[in-house]
Design brief:
single chain; binds zinc ion; 10 strands; alpha+beta
């Protein structure tokens, strides 16, 4: 997805500042360092294109895995117009006990216009731990329980 359309490999490429297209869509421009070919894609598409890449957690909780899947939701709640894209990732680690982890994080367009990953220190847990967190918090806090019930209701379960 991120490969240069001309080289058709995965050459090193430059990512350029995100811009808003005439149609009102955020676009991620790029150019190929090898052949100079320039192209662009919607930011959401670029964020999805990371699926399949390696994921590294830095020490102290050092781990290596792969980004197996990801969902992107455009967030429109910033007061200063900074665009955010919330992402929920499925990450697979070499851990036979608990291979599948879910990470909740986000991308934003930073002050220099660059698309920046904001999830380096965000919460990531095995799916079984997520379940425990959600149940525990819902039992502690009515406002969280209300949210979960509302979600379940909307999903028609
Ligand atoms: Zn190229």
């Amino acid at each position: 997805m991120c490969a240069c359309a001309k080289c058709e490999k995965k050459p090193p490429h430059n990512r350029l500042p995100v811009r808003l297209s005439a149609e009102g869509e955020y676009i991620q421009p790029m150019d190929c360092k090898k052949c100079g070919y320039a192209w662009e894609m919607p930011v959401v598409e670029w964020i999805y294109s990371r699926v399949g890449q390696d994921v590294k957690f830095k020490p102290p909780a050092q781990r290596k895995g792969k980004l197996k899947d990801r969902a992107v939701v455009k967030s429109d709640n910033s007061s200063d117009g900074t665009p955010y894209w919330d992402v929920v990732d499925l990450i697979q680690f070499d851990d036979p006990e608990r291979p599948d982890w879910i990470r909740m994080s986000y991308y934003l367009r930073d002050r220099n216009g660059m698309l920046t990953f904001g999830g380096q220190t965000s919460i990531a847990e095995p799916i079984a731990v997520w379940r425990k967190v959600l149940v525990d918090v819902a039992r502690q806090k009515q406002w969280f329980c209300n949210l979960l019930k509302d979600v379940v209701h909307e999903l028609g379960e």
